[in-house]
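Write out the bound-state structure for zinc ion.
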Amino acid sequence: MKQLFSALITLFLIIPSPSLHALQPPDQPDLAELSAAPGQSPSAAALVGACNRYNDLNTSIRDGKISKEPARSALKRLLAEVRQRYELAGGRNYTKTDWTFPLAGYDSRAITGGSNKGYIASGYDFYTGNRHGGHPAVDIFIRDRDQDSLDDRANRPVTVLSVTGGIVVALEREWEQGSGLRGGKYLWIYDPANDLLVYYAHNSELLVGLGDMVKPGDAIAKVGRSGFNAHKRRSPTHLHLSVLRVQDGWPLPLNVYQDLAHAKTIAAQ
Ligand SMILES: [Zn+2]
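---
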């Protein structure tokens, strides 16, 4: 009996207990960290990796290649990961008092569109992607009568500035005339502190890349006419700006006209 007991004890000791795994260091490198570019810290590489995966998801939603529920659970998971990695990489949190008007050399008088300022939230569903309804956005127009995407007074491009702080989580750099893509060359910036997704569409060029951290007022793009409708002659040159607040995986539109009217403005650059 005693022998059997000691044999059982021995068996118990040699079988690895699942709880032993919990004793391993929690910060095991993941694949993104192992593939860090020279000069890039592992935490920055992991953040870029998470942004790349979010961008892939965003493109699938945009193109109607993923149904709503799997898209929503993936979005929740990836944004939580981006937020965590943003904090680990030293990303700062900003509030509305730091917001900057998104066009250098312009202010909220450049937002037209009647009493609702062009903002129509009804009919909008983020998960319908490029086919979405509504217009959960403000359009901010530049002086460009000849439609060359240059400011008519300065004869120079107009710089798009980040309204919020955050991180570039999705973008499209490639857009050509004839593409059905409505946003053209666009950027999505995620503000982890306030759970906002901010969308900047119709740019002529992008000045930032996936995983770049920005603060309010940072230059992120140049105003352009890219996008299925924005390119047409009847469309005056503008920035299309949407601010969505993520609630339980639902990006819901916010009317930020009043906030933009009170935001800091920055001179043309
Ligand atoms: Zn618009």
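---
Strands lie at 138-141, 159-161, 166-171, 185-191, 196-206, 213-214, 219-223, 238-247, 250-254.
The CA atoms of residues 150 and 157 lie 5 Å apart.
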